[in-house]
Amino acid sequence: MKVTRLFDYLYQQKEKSPLKKSIGQKKGNDWSFYSTEELVNAAEELASGLLERGYKAGDKISIVSYKNRPEWLIVDIATQLLGIINVPLYPTISPKEYKYILNDAEVKACFVGDLDLFDKVAEAQKEAPSLKEIFTMDKQRSDRVFWESLFSKNKIAEVKAAAAEVDPDALATIIYTSGTTGNPKGVMLTHTNIKTVVDDTCKSLLPTENENVLSFLPFCHIFERAVIYGYLNKAHTVYCTGTDNLGGETGDLQTVKPNFFTTVPRLLEKIYDKIYSKGLSLTGAKKKLFFWALEMTDNYEHGQPLSGFKFAIADKLIFSKWRAALGGQLRGIVTGAAPMPAKIARVFSAAGIPILEGYGLTESSPTISVNDFQYAKIGTVGPVIESVDLHIDLDEENYGPGAGEILAAGPNIMQGYYNKPDKTAEVFREIEGKRYLKTGDIGKLVDGPGGVPYLKITDRKKELLKTSGGKYVAPAPIESKLKEDILVEQVMVVGDGKKFVSALIIPSEAALQEFCKQKNINWTNMEELVKSPEVIASVQACVDKINPLFSKVEQVKKFKLICQPWEPIKTDGTASELTPTLKLKRRVIREKCASHIAEIYSE
User: Fold this and answer.
1) pLDDT at 307
2) In angstroms, how far is CA 66 from the centroid of its own chain?
3) 180, 583 in Cβ contact below 8 A?
4) CATH topology match: 8-261 vs 465-602
5) Contact partners, residue 182, CB within 8 Å, separation at least 6
6) For position 95, what pLDDT does the model report?
7) How is the chain split into domains, by residue range?
8) Taking a C-beta distance cutoff of 8 angstroms, is the pair 121, 135 a contact?
9) 349 neighbors 378 (Cβ within 8 angstroms)
């Protein structure tokens, strides 16, 4: 069959490669799965029930859940069959943000997961008149409508007739970007927009079929949303889980033994930190062997053959244990949403766990470029995907040779921002009759394997600092290098309008505890330890090590250690410092850390 709409991927799986285990989640200690047939039936019966309640094409329905689950996909497919527009919500945002999105999109119904989600949406509903019904995906109180009560077979024929009329260029979803400032904007994406990315990336990232894959990045984000359709396309068995269930002897990495998953760099950084901390705790010959093996990865590139006696020893005694800790069957991991420290990508890839970095935006559905299993280059986000036309708007005076803002055109680019024609107009530019998205990211094309250019991201356009001397500084590369040090958990470079560049640094608590153990420093708490001369000296050594990699104006002259981690959600009512996709909210951090910044520049 020909796939033209997103729900067609499920029907294609049913026709070509039906699975007994298509998508599942853990209930207690056991996995519970939907077969392909059960997925189709559930989606059609839910769509039938929605028709009976009067929902129709063009309506908006939201979904929100703390963890990925089959029910999320079923609701998504059911709404698509009727031409209803899915408006996913992040579970970690506040009732105020729920209220804004529900009102802006005029959402009529919402499917919610467990814990406090019903209460949060119900609170927002008081000031969201369009929201008529809230359905729970878990059995809760008797006065709440359980989603299975909607299931009906009465209008299946009408569901199929409605699905046949769904235009590939019709809106499939409106995804509200998390944003680092202001209210979120609703990105309007069609079936064709997302399908373009799925088809292009499946060729190189998911070339095989019938594998086991883990899914823990939220479906409400376009990254994992596009990936899940790719899994349907390739008939993979999907294990839905959460980041809190991955590690340990009974964790999902060990029990599932996945062949593939997608993630954000933060998770890999944490895994690397644990590995490094264990290495530090070793003694004698074992410790020397660990760091000897680590040094072997320093200059590794994808496709580089690692062989010989030294590597054989390192692989057997060190790298094989890393692979086993991640299940032992991984063919690769794709990461996106934030910059991937090159050092960490080298370590894992050299150890036989290829890390493939990609790039995109919600506005591009999301992929613009991605490294793949055939050709990859560490430190880049890969070649541009087949359907995308990329243009670098050169500004070499500010950004360096060959660099400028990344512009992208193609069938994957959004229709615009919902209810915001002015904002839409701001992010598009016409070049020779073609409509290009202005990404706001700075990059350049570099030589790569396979004889094709590779995209390298150098910074965010709006995040460039301008010192009081009029020099522009890109903070992201500096931050990425600093985060390669085991002691540095989080970092933000500051210096806009100042005489020099400095940094706010949050040490890794686990690494700091190990450091104190090694140095015979009495462990008290983070608040005390960030003032320790020994700790400050160690971080200074890290800064001194990376500074020569940058021009004089870009070098970090001073830093301030702070003890409170930046988080994507705050329980005290204050603004979160990170977006749901873990990007820095620089304005919020500058405001919250104003006294620390003032202290740096007053000395």
Assistant:
1) 74
2) 15
3) yes
4) no
5) none
6) 79
7) 8-261, 262-462, 465-602
8) no
9) yes
Nearest to 398 by CA among 444, 331, 452: 444
Q: Which CATH class is domain 262-462?
A: mainly beta
**Which residue in this structure is represented by tokens 């033209």?**
4
Nearest in space to 47 (alpha carbons), one of 130, 144, 132, 150? 150
DSSP 386: T
pLDDT in tens, 106-164: 999 999 999 899 999 999 999 999 999 999 999 999 999 999 999 999 999 999 999 99
Q: What is the DSSP string of 6-21?
A: TTHHHHHHHHH---S-
pTM of the full predicted structure? 0.85
Short-list 522, 559, 555, CA closest to 537 = 559
**DSSP H/E element including 389:** strand 389-394
The verdict on whether omega for the bond into residue 354 sits within 30 degrees of 0, i.e. cis, is: no
> Kind and range of the H or E element at 522?
none
**Residue 261: CB partners within 8 Å, gap ≥ 6?**
213, 214, 215, 216, 330, 333, 334
Helix (H, G, I), strand (E, B) or coil at 559: strand
Per-residue DSSP letter, 478: H
How many of the other CB atoms lie within 10 Å of CB of 586?
A: 20
Whole-number Cα distances in Å, 87 to 63, 75, 104, 219, 248: 7, 11, 11, 11, 35
Report the chain's terminal Cα–Cα distance, integer Å: 69
The strand pair at 488-494 and 501-507 is best described as antiparallel
Q: By the 8 A CB rule, do 7 and 77 touch? A: yes
The most distant pair of C-alpha atoms in the chain lies apart, rounded to whole Å, by 74
- Residue 584 dihedral angles phi and psi, to the nearest 5°: -70, 130
**Three-state SS at 335:** strand
Domain 8-261, CATH: 3.40.50.12780
Instruction: Evaluate whether 187 touches 175 at the Cβ level (below 8 Å).
Output: yes
Q: Are 133 and 32 in contact (CB under 8 A)?
A: no
Instruction: Determine phi and psi for 240, rounding to 5 degrees.
Output: -85, 130
DSSP lists the bridge partners of residue 394 as 404
Contact, 131 vs 109, CB < 8 A? yes
Burial of 598 per CB tally in 10 Å (0-12, 13-18, 19+):
exposed
Quote the pLDDT of residue 179: 56
The structure tokens 């933000």 sit at 492
Helix (H) or strand (E) holding 600: helix 594-602
Nearest residue to 552 via CA among 449, 456, 473, 493: 473
Strand partners, 133: 109
194 vs 290: which has the higher pLDDT: 194
Query: What would the pLDDT profile of 59-72 be if each residue is shown by its tens digit?
Result: 999 999 999 999 99
**E strands of 149-236, at which residues?**
171-176, 186-190, 212-215
Assess contact for 457 and 449: CB atoms under 8 A: no
| Percent of the chain whose pLDDT exceeds 70 | 99
CA gap 568, 328 in Å, rounded:
31
Choose the CATH number for 465-602 among 3.30.300.30, 3.40.50.2000, 3.40.50.620, 1.10.540.10. 3.30.300.30
Q: Is 497 a residue whose pLDDT tops 90?
A: no
In contact, 206 and 226? CB cutoff 8 Å = no
